[in-house]
């Protein structure tokens, strides 16, 4: 009984013991200076928002990164593995409203709580480089970057729409708008108001952001595709249709007349990717927000009501998250536009699927050659005019959507190919001044103004005499006032803090007002990973030498929900910093990994579903090693993981077996240290072969496949095999040197997954120093190679025998071995073999008659 107790695996004792030791040794997980001479490896998990509680998604994310960091340390790399806090944002203000706790206090308490949880999980972070974005030593550099961008014309102001709750009398974030109403006033409809706001000119880098994706081969293809779509480049032409004078439209004539009489001066600029089809345009369609629409509706209340309805449909579709799937509706305006190429009069419509912020907010509709236009024209009875035919003449089914064709019904352009016509029509538009070739991007400039308290103050001053004035660098940081009353009244809370707002103009010395907008929190996360390389720098955001040594990030790991915004913004920021001369890399991360979600009972864990599993509970019950290892082993890391507590218990039992096995044989194994290993034979050879096969497999997985779930399966098999040889081990058939190699390597292989258990067993085996500084085991290919394989032999699909062949036997040798087998010979005697199926290394099947 006493021995049983001694051998019991008890993570509740082991884990805190090692965590204390690790905490007392900060050099253990610290990045070394470049002069260390080792190759560098920067592994990074996305930094969390400090909500106060880690969830299982975090545990999975960090377990992946931690396993990789530990593995790279053991491979001899200089590893940077930092952690920080994305600490600005709305929840802190909401909590302040609810509990009357100042946002700073609430946030810092949450950080402390989550840091405790991370340490309890035994995660190997270099806390000396910790970054907390809500602290002035960090956000002053957001302000510094803002000023540099302002100087380069990359930060600017323009009028833009915001969500406005009339009841709160304040701006709402998109996530505070619920079903079109205010989150706090559930029956108050949120209005759109025009407000002057700050923007970053990310569109200046649109083409480079797009081109750069081709080089990011270490990024998931789906992420690159999402970014390409988000950037949304299209090549095309802008063309001005002229608005026909109102007097000319009384006829209600929708035929395409040819007269140019009655032309007004108003130009309606449309964007099209197919100007070669312009002779087939049978209407012009405007977004409901288009400037002309307001003019049309001013004198037409019926039209006004119809347009309001279109706007409402658009808004609903936007909220539902799929604008592309909107059911298409439109209304005719009674106005006409003139095609500049042939003078054709076409009706002007307003449609709900035309977006104000794509292209020019106006299109020409060519139903014969566009699916969407065809659908719309069919629904509303608009004419359909074919102007492209296939290059090879024949029947054409409309809509005919192809750029491989020839123009018809297009006047002097008939017979030209689509490509030739496009070029010619663009030249004419440019020469006559009614259009030009144009590349359009879906990507819009990044609106960074927030009318919020808990964010980085924008370092600008409004002076009546001098206009916009930059806060001088030496006055940075513009500090967030600490004592502030958060109410939901009247714009930015900062606007009500007189000491903050009232300022001396740095230019004229007169009274002036500070900007009260704060920055979008995506600013914080756009460059935080550079700060890790030089986190204490008080003179600059970071030193270039440190950044140039560590960048690009070798492996970035995070959720796919950040595939677009965070990753586009941080790519943009990297390019801006490069152009400021701070860094030399073009992209922040060489490789990106997006892990799957953690779900339970088939659904995402959420409080409302009541299916949340708390990491603390799992750690208390099974230990950190079991919780971490389970989150890696239960599914391939890129897939969703369905959390099963049975599975955690299973991993915990497995770790206990490793514990018992190693502690049992450690005393014998230790005597093998320094002994000359003999050429292994018998059971030693069998076990060492299995060991070296396992090493090869796990090493390969770390090099890119990351199928950690099959890694543990392989380690479990190895442990089974060692345990299966218990009698021989007990009888001393395995020499101590071989036993030591077996147990020592087993421990090393588990080190990235179960660090506490491993630290304890490492000591148990008489090893000194941290296992992280022990070299990762090398697979010996000679030892790993099987010399014989057992091959099942089937006759007509039924197993009749098993033969042994050399591991490198070819198909002919396998067939010969099968045919030489006595049982096989007995079965085929007197019959004809009609087919022989040989699967190399696996199977022989004979079909006989
Ligand atoms: Zn409200
Ligand atoms: Zn001034």
What is the percentage of strand-forming residues?
15-25%
Shape: globular
Write down how many β-strands occur, each being a DSSP E stretch of 2 or more residues: 34
- The number of helical segments is 27
Averaged pLDDT:
91
Poorly predicted segments: 247-261
What small-molecule ligands were found?
zinc ion
Helix content: 25-40%
How far do the termini sit from each other?
A: 64 Å
The major sheet is characterized as:
7 strands, mixed
Query: Based on helices, strands and strand pairing, what is the structural class?
Result: alpha+beta
- State Rg: 35 Å
Describe the structure.
- With 849 residues, the chain is α+β, with helices and mostly antiparallel strands.
- It contains 27 helices and 34 strands.
- The strands form 10 sheets. Strands 10, 11, 12, 13, 14, 15 and 18 form a 7-stranded mixed sheet that branches. Strands 2-1-26-27 form a 4-stranded parallel sheet, covered by helices on one side. A 4-stranded antiparallel sheet has the order 6-5-9-19.
- The radius of gyration is 35 Å and the shape is globular.
- The chain binds zinc ion (2 copies).
- The site of one zinc ion has 7 residues, from loops.
């Amino acid at each position: 009984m006493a021995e049983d107790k001694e051998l019991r695996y008890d993570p509740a004792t082991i884990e805190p013991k090692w965590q204390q030791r690790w905490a007392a040794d900060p050099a253990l997980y610290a990045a070394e200076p470049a002069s260390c001479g080792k190759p560098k490896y920067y592994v990074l998990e996305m930094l969390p928002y400090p909500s106060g509680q880690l969830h299982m998604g975090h545990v999975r994310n960090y377990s992946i990164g931690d396993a990789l960091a530990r593995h790279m340390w053991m491979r001899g790399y200089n590893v940077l593995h930092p952690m920080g806090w994305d600490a600005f944002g709305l929840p802190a203000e909401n909590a302040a409203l609810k509990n009357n706790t100042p946002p700073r206090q609430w946030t810092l308490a949450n950080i402390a709580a989550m840091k405790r949880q991370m340490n309890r999980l035994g995660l190997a972070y270099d806390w000396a480089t910790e970054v907390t974005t809500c602290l002035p030593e960090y956000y002053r550099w957001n302000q510094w970057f803002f000023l540099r961008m302002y100087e380069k014309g990359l930060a600017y102001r323009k009028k833009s729409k915001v969500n406005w709750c009339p009841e709160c009398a304040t701006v709402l974030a998109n996530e505070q708008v619920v079903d079109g109403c205010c989150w706090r006033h559930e029956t108050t409809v949120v209005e759109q108001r025009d407000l002057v706001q700050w923007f970053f000119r990310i569109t200046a880098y649109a083409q480079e952001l797009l081109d750069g994706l081709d080089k990011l081969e270490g990024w998931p293809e789906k992420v690159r595709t999402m970014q390409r779509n988000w950037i949304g480049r299209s090549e095309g032409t802008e063309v001005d249709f002229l608005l026909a004078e109102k007097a000319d439209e009384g006829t209600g004539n929708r035929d395409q007349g040819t007269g140019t009489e009655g032309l007004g001066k108003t130009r309606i600029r449309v964007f099209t990717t197919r100007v070669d089809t312009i002779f087939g345009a049978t209407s012009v369609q405007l977004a409901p927000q288009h400037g002309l629409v307001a003019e049309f509706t001013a004198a037409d209340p019926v039209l006004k009501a119809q347009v309001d309805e279109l706007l409402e449909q658009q808004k609903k579709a936007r909220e539902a998250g799929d604008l592309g799937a909107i059911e298409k509706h439109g209304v005719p305006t009674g106005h006409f536009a003139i095609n500049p190429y042939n003078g054709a009069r076409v009706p002007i419509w307003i449609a709900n699927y035309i977006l104000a912020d794509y292209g020019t907010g106006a299109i020409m509709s060519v139903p014969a050659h566009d699916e969407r236009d065809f659908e719309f024209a069919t629904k509303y009875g608009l004419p359909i005019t074919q102007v492209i035919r296939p290059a090879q003449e024949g029947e054409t089914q409309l809509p005919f959507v192809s750029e491989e064709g020839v123009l018809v019904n297009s006047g002097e352009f008939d017979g030209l190919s689509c490509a030739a016509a496009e070029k010619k029509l663009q030249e004419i538009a440019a020469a006559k001044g009614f259009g030009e070739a144009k590349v359009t991007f879906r990507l819009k400039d990044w609106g960074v103004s927030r009318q919020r308290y808990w964010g980085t103050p924008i370092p600008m001053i409004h002076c009546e005499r001098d206009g916009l004035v930059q806060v001088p660098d030496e006055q940075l940081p513009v500090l967030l006032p600490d004592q502030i009353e958060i109410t939901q009244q009247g714009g930015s809370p900062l606007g009500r803090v007189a000491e903050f707002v009232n300022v001396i103009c740095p230019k004229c010395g007169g009274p002036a007002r500070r900007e009260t907008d704060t920055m979008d929190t995506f600013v914080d996360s756009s460059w935080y990973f550079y700060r890790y390389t030089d986190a204490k720098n008080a003179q600059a955001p970071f030193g270039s030498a440190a950044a140039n040594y560590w960048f690009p990030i070798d492996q970035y790991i995070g959720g796919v929900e950040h595939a677009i915004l965070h990753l586009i913004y941080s790519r943009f920021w990297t390019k801006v910093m490069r152009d400021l001369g701070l860094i030399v890399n073009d992209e922040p991360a060489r490789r990106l990994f997006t892990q799957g979600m953690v779900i339970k009972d088939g659904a995402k864990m959420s409080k409302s579903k009541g299916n949340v599993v708390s990491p603390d509970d799992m750690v208390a019950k099974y230990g950190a090693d079991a919780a971490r290892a389970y989150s890696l082993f239960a599914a391939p890391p890129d897939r969703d993981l369905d959390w099963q507590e049975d599975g955690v218990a299973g991993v915990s039992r497995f770790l206990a077996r490793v514990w018992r096995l190693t502690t049992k044989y450690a005393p014998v194994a230790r005597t093998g240290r320094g002994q000359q290993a003999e050429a292994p034979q018998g059971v030693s050879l069998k076990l060492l072969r299995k060991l070296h096969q396992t090493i090869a497999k796990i090493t390969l997985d770390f090099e890119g496949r990351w199928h950690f779930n099959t890694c543990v399966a392989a380690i479990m098999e190895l442990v089974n095999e060692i345990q299966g040889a218990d009698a021989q081990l007990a009888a001393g058939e395995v020499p101590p040197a071989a036993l030591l190699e077996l147990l020592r390597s087993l421990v090393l292989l588990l080190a990235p997954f179960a660090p506490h258990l491993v630290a304890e067993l490492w000591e148990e085996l008489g090893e000194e120093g941290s296992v992280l500084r022990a070299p990762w085991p090398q697979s010996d290919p000679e030892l790993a190679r099987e010399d014989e394989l057992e091959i099942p032999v089937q006759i007509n699909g039924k197993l009749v025998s098993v033969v042994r062949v050399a591991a490198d036997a070819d198909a002919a040798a396998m067939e010969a071995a099968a045919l030489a087998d006595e049982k096989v010979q007995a079965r085929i005697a007197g019959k004809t073999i009609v087919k022989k199926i040989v699967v190399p290394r696996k199977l022989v099947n004979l079909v006989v008659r």
